[in-house]
Amino acid sequence: MRGLQVSLNQTQKIRLQRAQEKIESFSSKSNPNASVTVADTIPVNFEDGVLKGHGTSELDGEVVATLCGVVERANKLVYIRTLRARYKPEIGDVIVGRVIEVAPKRWRLEINFSQDAVLMLSSMNLPDGIQRRRTAVDELNMRSIFKENDVVCAEVRGFQHDGSLHLQSRSQKYGKLERGQLLTVSPYLVKRRKLHFHHIEQYGIDLILGCNGFIWVGEHVEARDDMIVEDQVSTSEQQNATPNRYPASLEEQERTYTPLETRQNICRTANAVRVLCTLGFSINVEVIMEMVNLSSSLNLDIHEMLGAEFCVLIAEGEAERRSLKKKKG
Amino acid sequence: MYRMCKLTGTYVEIRRIAFDANFNVFGLNLAVEELRGRFSSGDQTLKQINIYITLPPNVPTKLFHCKIQSKHVEVGIKGNPSYLNTAGDKLEEGEDGVKSSCPLSPRRHICYNGRDKGSRSRQGMVGLSIGEKHFIQGGIAQDLRSDGRKRLTYRPISVETGNIPQANGSARVKIGATDVIASVKAELGKPSPFQPDKGKVSIYVDCSPTAAPIFEGRGGDELSAELSSALQRCLLGGKSGAGAGIDLSSLSIVEGKICWDLYIYGLVVSSDGNLLDALGAAIKAALSNTGIPKVHVAASGPSDGQSEVDVSDEEFLQFDTSSVPVIVTSTKVGRHYIVDATSEEESQMSSAISVSINRQGRICGLTKRGGAGLDPSVILDMISVAKHVSEQLMNKLDSEISAAEACEEES
């Protein structure tokens, strides 16, 4: 397992190895033809004509793999999809990114991809919620919406001509993320699902699984309806509200801190994600919630979740789960 | 990307250049005087001038604006008042514009290679948003840090010894994601005339570019120098050799003539905060792994000449590390102190104190980092916190080191 920072003693090493072998035995039975290593021939029907895609090349009249991965076919195209690839964006993906630059009429975000993504001012809901044309004043006030280093959640709208991404964040659930922590995992661990925003009521936390490998765990923030806020609050108060959100004095800051219990849940969830990342298992809500419940039922200290014993327990649990799935299916 | 301004028939004299602390050019004072009909007189003519300007951080190069015409020079950043605008300057008749008295010396103008993405998150410390910083500070105030640790808990420490077989002793210590390697090499040398009965020890630290891209080239020199001097202060004691954590008199072979020189090298492979503690632990582990070869000194030979020294290849003396101190860094964030800060937490610190404490609970060295001032009572408080933590750390390290050595002997 890559990057395992904990040192395991002898028994733990043996248990981990056994669990890993069990997991591998379940997966290898499915479709052995699909995975190839370098210099394996790819079985192709030559009469149909074949388009050689990424990771393939022709050698002695045969199509041969140049990468290690899984063979994917789409009509006549044959290509190799590597397992630990860079994030490959698709339209409609939910993404979490960090603002690195405020440029004229747009923000540039870093999203763990080969290029930066662009979020246009026009693809963003204005703070007052009204749908109108963006004026020069809006452009000058861009910094009041997102500054450098802010964490933003958005959706992929499309691709630009040079391959970089265009993002949009038109609904209330997207936008700036505060009061929490951002974790980075490998993108291949987050599979595309129907739902990427998870509000876990029993703990009061928000969990956003970005398809690019950035995962946000934070305190739950209600998606405000801006129109109602505008009516209730007078303009002068609203102007004071934003700068005072993080007040300078220490006592006021202490009052605005996240309450302890929510913080414990946030830390447990974050540690669960970290453990899944080191073990290389896919990240989804059910697994994370199971791990959090397991750790609280075992009365583990939160930082012990990153220790050797818990890692091995999780690996064994995953092996169990896959064997059950195999028996059912 | 640099702007190349081709000027023919005009002279550009660079009169004054304003630099900031990083030697970036923030202001240029250019005087342009047109030469009329002087080409034939044999004066030096500048046909082409390259101006290299390093922009302030976070400014994209598209916004740089430079206009040089025969009678008018304007340099600035779009949307801001220009740094330099000579529209109002009047040309003086008959003045000789050729002045090469203040050329740009090669050290002072900084070439700007490629697009300046260097100040962004990808190439250095990842920036944190205000919300995340607030979260980290809140966690420290509530005694629950981002990974669930308490304020005074260390991350899991793992120690391996004997990584470098060519060295006399070596060790690799990982604290969380921080990874450092220390190696000890012993060579024969002459003791210093002020301390003829003691050996010499020198400590060097190098930050590898694998730890962070900013360490490439000369970027890591500052941090390496700081770490080396902090380690020397913590482990080696004063100039007279008194108070050293390492017993220097055990390194002497022939008083006044031959002694062992220990060279301790530390390499930072991966950096996630708390480098000083990790290096201190690695040096302690490497020293306990060190075997100094046994030396037989021939009794014969002239008294003031070279003595015969026979260095044995087989027999080794284990170095005595019971008095080597351990380093504990306590970082002040807000009103509270934490131990073993990650790099995110270190970015929020106001100041940090690194204390090296030996087994008897005595302080061997003290370093303060960070720009914020500290009240003396706060310093005493932080020292007592560090002392309290150091006992557990010392025991943990000792058990890890003996486990690692046992592991090494098996393999």
Task: Report on the architecture of this protein.
The complex is a heterodimer of chains A (329) and B (411). Chain A has 9 helices and 16 strands. Residues 226-244 of chain A have low confidence and may be disordered. With 329 residues, chain A is of the alpha+beta class. In chain A, the strands form 4 sheets. In chain A, strands 7-8-9-11-10 form a 5-stranded mixed β-barrel. In chain A, strands 1-5-6-2 form a 4-stranded mixed sheet, with no helix packed on it. A 4-stranded antiparallel sheet of chain A has the order 13-16-15-14, covered by helices on one side. In chain A, a hairpin with a 4-residue loop joins β15 (205-209) and β16. Chain A is 31% helix and 26% strand. By secondary structure, chain B is of the alpha+beta class. Helices cover 20% and strands 32% of the residues of chain B. Chain B has helices at residues 130-141, 221-236, 275-289, 343-346, 376-410, and strands at residues 3-6, 10-19, 25-34, 48-51, 64-68, 73-77, 84-85, 157-161, 169-175, 178-189, 200-207, 252-254, 258-270, 291-297, 309-318, 326-333, 336-339, 351-357, 363-369. In chain B, strands 8, 9, 10, 11, 12 and 13 form a 6-stranded mixed sheet that branches. A 4-stranded antiparallel sheet of chain B has the order 17-16-18-19, with helices on both faces. Chain B is globular. The relative contact order of chain B is 0.11. Chain A binds chain B through residues 5-7, 98, 100-101, 103, 110, 147-151, 176-182, 218, 246, 250, 253-254, 256-258, 260, 263-264, 267-268, 270-271, 274, 301-307, and chain B through 58, 60, 120-122, 126-132, 134-135, 137-139, 141-142, 144-150, 153, 156, 158, 174, 176-177, 334-335.
Task: Give the SSE map.
The complex is a heterodimer of chains A (329) and B (411).
Chain A: H1 10-28, E1 35-36, E2 51-52, E3 56-59, E4 62-65, E5 69-74, E6 77-82, E7 94-103, E8 106-110, E9 117-124, H2 136-140, H3 142-145, E10 151-159, E11 165-169, E12 175-177, E13 180-184, E14 197-200, E15 205-209, E16 214-219, H4 226-232, H5 235-241, H6 250-255, H7 260-279, H8 285-297, H9 308-328
Chain B: E1 3-6, E2 10-19, E3 25-34, E4 48-51, E5 64-68, E6 73-77, E7 84-85, H1 130-141, E8 157-161, E9 169-175, E10 178-189, E11 200-207, H2 221-236, E12 252-254, E13 258-270, H3 275-289, E14 291-297, E15 309-318, E16 326-333, E17 336-339, H4 343-346, E18 351-357, E19 363-369, H5 376-410
Parallel strand pairs in B: 11-13
Antiparallel strand pairs in B: 1-4, 2-3, 5-6, 6-7, 8-9, 9-10, 10-13, 12-13, 14-15, 16-17, 16-18, 18-19
Helix pairs in contact in B: 3-5
